[in-house]
Amino acid sequence: MYASVGDRLVVHGRVVGQQDHVVEIVEVLGPKGGPPYRVRAENGHETITSPGPDAVVDHRKVGE
Protein backbone atom coordinates (compact mmCIF):
# COMPACT_ATOMS: atom_id res chain seq x y z
CA MET A 1 0.00 0.00 0.00
CA TYR A 2 1.36 3.42 -1.01
CA ALA A 3 -0.05 6.80 0.02
CA SER A 4 0.97 10.43 0.25
CA VAL A 5 -0.25 13.38 2.28
CA GLY A 6 -3.66 14.53 1.08
CA ASP A 7 -4.79 11.12 -0.18
CA ARG A 8 -7.92 9.56 1.26
CA LEU A 9 -8.01 6.23 3.07
CA VAL A 10 -11.29 4.38 2.51
CA VAL A 11 -12.11 1.58 4.95
CA HIS A 12 -14.95 -0.49 3.54
CA GLY A 13 -17.82 -1.53 5.81
CA ARG A 14 -17.55 -5.18 6.81
CA VAL A 15 -21.24 -5.84 7.31
CA VAL A 16 -24.22 -5.28 5.04
CA GLY A 17 -25.53 -1.75 5.58
CA GLN A 18 -22.35 -0.43 7.21
CA GLN A 19 -21.03 2.60 5.34
CA ASP A 20 -17.43 3.12 4.27
CA HIS A 21 -15.27 5.21 6.60
CA VAL A 22 -13.24 7.86 4.74
CA VAL A 23 -10.36 9.78 6.35
CA GLU A 24 -7.66 12.11 5.03
CA ILE A 25 -4.00 11.09 5.31
CA VAL A 26 -2.19 13.98 7.01
CA GLU A 27 1.19 12.31 7.63
CA VAL A 28 2.93 9.22 6.26
CA LEU A 29 4.99 7.58 9.01
CA GLY A 30 6.18 4.46 7.17
CA PRO A 31 9.01 4.11 4.67
CA LYS A 32 8.35 4.84 0.98
CA GLY A 33 4.70 5.86 1.47
CA GLY A 34 3.77 2.79 3.49
CA PRO A 35 1.83 2.53 6.74
CA PRO A 36 1.38 3.60 9.45
CA TYR A 37 -0.47 6.82 8.61
CA ARG A 38 -1.70 9.72 10.71
CA VAL A 39 -5.26 10.34 9.53
CA ARG A 40 -7.93 12.98 10.16
CA ALA A 41 -11.67 12.30 10.13
CA GLU A 42 -14.31 14.81 9.04
CA ASN A 43 -14.98 15.75 12.67
CA GLY A 44 -11.30 16.72 13.15
CA HIS A 45 -10.29 13.64 15.18
CA GLU A 46 -6.76 12.45 14.37
CA THR A 47 -5.28 9.01 14.97
CA ILE A 48 -2.50 6.76 13.72
CA THR A 49 -3.56 3.68 11.77
CA SER A 50 -2.08 0.74 9.92
CA PRO A 51 -4.89 -0.17 7.53
CA GLY A 52 -5.99 -3.74 7.02
CA PRO A 53 -7.08 -5.61 3.89
CA ASP A 54 -10.49 -3.89 3.93
CA ALA A 55 -8.91 -0.48 3.20
CA VAL A 56 -7.82 1.19 -0.03
CA VAL A 57 -6.04 4.44 -0.80
CA ASP A 58 -7.91 6.93 -2.99
CA HIS A 59 -5.19 9.06 -4.58
CA ARG A 60 -7.58 11.92 -5.44
CA LYS A 61 -6.87 14.75 -3.04
CA VAL A 62 -9.52 15.91 -0.58
CA GLY A 63 -11.75 18.47 -2.30
CA GLU A 64 -11.37 16.96 -5.79
Task: Please tell me about this protein's structure.
The protein is mainly β. The protein has one domain. 0% of the residues lie in helices and 38% in strands. The protein has no helices and five strands. The chain has strands at 8-11, 21-28, 37-40, 46-49, 55-58. The chain has a five-stranded antiparallel sheet, with no helix packed on it. The model has no long low-confidence stretch (mean pLDDT 90).
Fold blueprint:
Blueprint lengths: L7 E4 L9 E8 L8 E4 L5 E4 L5 E4 L6
Antiparallel strand pairs: 1-2, 1-5, 2-3, 3-4
Task: Give a short overview.
By secondary structure, the chain is an all-beta fold. The chain is built from no helices and 5 strands. The protein has one domain (about 10-60).
Number of DSSP-assigned strands: 5
Number of domains: 1
Number of helices: 0
- Output the strand order for the largest sheet: 4-3-2-1-5
What do the pLDDT scores average to?
90
- The dominant shape is globular
Radius of gyration: 11 Å
Q: Gap between N and C termini, in Å?
A: 21 Å
Strand pairing plus helix content: what structural class? mainly beta
The amount of helix comes to under 10%
- What's the order of the H and E elements? EEEEE
Strand content: 35-45%
Main sheet record: 5 strands, antiparallel
Low-pLDDT residue intervals, each spanning 5 or more residues: none
Region (Disordered): 34-64
Protein name: DUF1918 domain-containing protein
InterPro entries: DUF1918
Organism: Kitasatospora cathayae
